[in-house]
Amino acid sequence: MSSKRHSILPAVSAGPKPPVHFSSSITIADSALLTGTNLITISSESVIHPRAKLDSLAGRITIGRRCVVHERTMIGAIGTSGKVTETAVTLGDYVTVEVAASIEAGNTIIGEGTTVGVGSKIGAGAVIGKHCTLTPHTEIPAGEVIPDFTVMYSNGMRRVDKRGVADLKNKGQARQIDVLRRMIPSNPAKFT
Amino acid sequence: MAPLNPYTYIQCPCSDSASLGRPSDATSPTSAEADDEDNTFDPRAPRANFSLYPLEYLLYCEDCHQIRCPRCIAEEIATYFCPSCLFEVPSSNLKSEGNRCTRSCFQCPICIGPLSVTSIETPPSDPNLLAPDRAATQHSTYSLICSYCNWSSTEIGIQFDKPNSIHAQLAKIRNGGASRLTAKERKERRKELSHRGGEAAVAAAAAAAAASETSGGQDMDLETQFANLKLFYNSQLADPNAGDNGFSSLGDLGFSSPSSLSRIMNLYTGGKLHDPRAKSKLGAMREAITADEGLLEPDLDESSLISQLHRSDFLDTASSTQVCSQPPNLGEPHLHGAARFNSSLRPAPYLLRTKRSKRCPVCRHIISKPEAKVQTTRFRIRLVAGSYIPSISIRRLNLPGSNGPGAPAILGDLLEPLKPVHFLLTFKNPIFESLKVTLGAPAKTPGRFPSKVTVLCPQFDIDANTDVWDEALKDNDRESSGRSRRRAGTESQFQVEVGKIWERGRNWVSIVVEVVPASLKLEQGQDLLKEDEDVLEIPMFVRIEWEVENGGDDATTGSGRDKDQKEKRELAYWCVLGLGRIKQG
């Protein structure tokens, strides 16, 4: 908790501490950043990496079961509109949000089993279907609706994934979470 | 408008039309200079685009004492290698196996990412996902998977039995999983067909052809068609009576008949018009008329493709780059409608890359030679021009007196028309001899908007590029001697003087160029400003002279003379200085 700060930058203002609703089986690093005024729900067996930032200022954030939220992600970023909605971001089950991806607030929904690639940006109100793959640095404009099993390329191309390995992928995710749980020291008590 | 950083481009002498026209005397300095006075190099000429290079792109031939650009260099390939596995491919394999990696290196046909071999497990029937694996006992198949976009070769119906030698396995499989015909199978099938054909009467040949078209013609791939055609023509050539049906003279008139072809060739080669020997030998040949002879009727019924297009998205169709990156696949059905959809694209083996050595085309000496080992990026020989000819860097000079104090010169600032500006050109000497530099620039730049150019010090010497530490130790002597770093005297420090250099250092000299940019006001009847016509570019002729010791390597020329005698070398070339954009209106 009281680790020495090595950075010369001023400390990030913590903001208001949000009300949270955690399942008992989640893994959340204590350097994760949770701010905002609305409820943040994290369901069972999900993993929040260190320095992931969840901001519920613009609405509720719900993270499904067995999700992995990587480092330096920004979930619930208040976009250009700055609108406050009831639900800001909803992640389905088995969603992976990779490093430095950012998801804007405003009824944004990400479907089950979707992978949000490194450095991707998802605009406010976008609805991503189930088992989609967003390749690194994809940008989804606000309000876009992406059907299930879509592969989005960073150059705007898209393709339908016909492998039908959703179950296998979920199984892989479960195994990965099993490993991560051992690697990341969890401290949910800090946030409640 | 994007700011413009000053640049220096050097014209390779290989594209100099003057020296091309007059081979010998154009290289001598006096005539070249005389010639260039009335024939200034125009950097805006359309041809200039192809001869101007930054210094870093140029090489230098030590034997010809000449700059060599990428256009005047003979390349030869040292090694071929796969960029993915860095495996060196012997050039003998190239002829037999083509220019792609024949190991297990593949690119995703959709996104060009590297593909990896992954085993395909059967989907778990157990709802409990964390149950221990029993997959190890099962016989598994393998597929190629792109880790970037999750494309898998199972999407086009391709699976492999073994995780190794994917290239050989892929060559045998068609899209959809059907295996490609081997030569042996093809032979057997043909035998079967001919057997059937033998039973049928000649009169029923048309019916048989129709039948074989429906059965064999549809799935006839390129390889089979070629084999069938080859067999057919071989039999035609072997059979002397095949075309001897009394109409040989008529058949000669057709363009496709070999005898008329040979007659046309005779017309061009000047041989006899009618070669009696050839005529007697080659009768008219029949063309293939059935599928087993290699005839493939184009499948013009594309309704299935059209309906597939109706059902699919634009993004499901393959782009032309995707189609072009596909390797030729002989096991495919015929080209009609091939690979128009993403679903028909196959994994592409990596194209091989090369390491090349470069030779001077005149003296055949090697100018650049990479190390043969694929993994190393070093060069054994690399004679870059930057270590032989002085580099020129450009800086805007703001004189406190004229432009008001403290106006900082920002690179990329727009130049005020008709207001004199000063630029500092710094020449840096890379060689270990002192250089004598002579500059020549036209008084007015070529083009529609001539700017006035004055090189204040067109002739100067640059000291040798001696050892840095020697210089540091000698620094005290240098101070006392007359060659101070900056011209002495505080009152004359910021004054531009004609004929004097601005500043000098260990191996560099700065001089001042005064430019009066032209006004870009368009007069009536003039065309609009073209792209980049507002860029102020100065053509400048650089001639450098230096002396080298007539050492052992030039023993042939200096054998009779004194060994210690110094030899004079010179090099002259045009360069273009891009100074900045002129403000418009």
Shape of chain A: globular
Approximately what portion of the residues of chain B adopt beta-strand conformation?
A: 15-25%
Helix amount of chain A, in percent? under 10%
Could you tell me the strand content of chain A as a percent range?
25-35%
Order of helices and strands of chain A: EEEEEEEEEEEEEEEEEEEEEH
State the end-to-end CA separation of chain B.
14 Å
Mean pLDDT of chain B: 75
Query: Largest interface by residue count?
Result: A-B, 20 and 17 residues
How is the main sheet of chain A built?
8 strands, mixed
Strand order of the largest sheet of chain A: 2-5-8-11-14-17-20-21
- Rg of chain B computed from alpha carbons, rounded to a whole number of angstroms: 36 Å
Mean pLDDT of chain A: 89
Structural class of chain A: mainly beta
Which strand order do you get reading across the main beta sheet of chain B? 2-1-22-21-16-18
Global geometry of chain B: elongated
Count structural domains of chain A. 1
Question: What is the count of helical runs of chain B?
Answer: 15
**What gyration radius of chain A follows from the Cα positions, in whole Å?**
16 Å
Task: Report the strand count of chain B.
Answer: 22
Share of helical residues of chain B:
10-25%
